């Protein structure tokens, strides 16, 4: 039998396994209502400059290590370099 998530056998909120796991032990439907999602959303909103700086550093690190970047800015830069 396939496990629902790595650390959880069912959703922490609705206790169902019919919806796919999203994060923090919550299914796709319950994650948006969880405190973790609200905290993450508010943190990003209130600290946008820090989040952008982290993404820039991560993209630069990924570029030097030869990994595909997770940020949009990094992907745009790498696509522009490929065209040259």
List the helices and strands and how they pair.
Blueprint: E1 21-23, E2 26-27, H1 28-31, H2 35-46, H3 48-65, H4 72-83
Antiparallel strand pairs: 1-2
Helix pairs in contact: 3-4
Q: How widely separated are the two ends? A: 50 Å
Which percent range fits the helix content?
A: 40-55%
Approximate shape: elongated
- How is the main sheet built? 2 strands, antiparallel
* Structural class estimated from helices and strands: mainly alpha
What's the β-strand tally?
Answer: 2
Strand content: 5-15%
Number of domains: 2
The residue-averaged pLDDT reads: 78
Provide the spatial order of strands within the biggest beta sheet. Answer: 1-2
Word description of this protein:
- This protein has 84 residues and is mainly alpha-helical.
- It has 2 domains: 1-46, no CATH class; 47-83, no CATH class.
- Helix content is 55%, strand content 6%.
- Strands 1-2 form a two-stranded antiparallel ribbon.
- Strand 1 and strand 2 form a beta hairpin.
- Helix 3 (48-65) crosses helix 4.
- 7% of the residues are buried.
């Amino acid at each position: 039998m396939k496990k629902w998530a790595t650390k959880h056998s069912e959703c922490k909120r609705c206790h169902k396994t019919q919806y796919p796991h999203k994060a923090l032990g919550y299914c796709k439907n319950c994650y948006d209502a969880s405190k973790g999602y609200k905290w993450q959303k508010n943190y990003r909103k209130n600290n946008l400059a820090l989040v952008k700086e982290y993404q820039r550093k991560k993209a630069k690190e990924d570029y030097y290590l030869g990994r595909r970047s997770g940020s949009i800015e990094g992907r745009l830069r790498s696509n522009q370099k490929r065209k040259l």
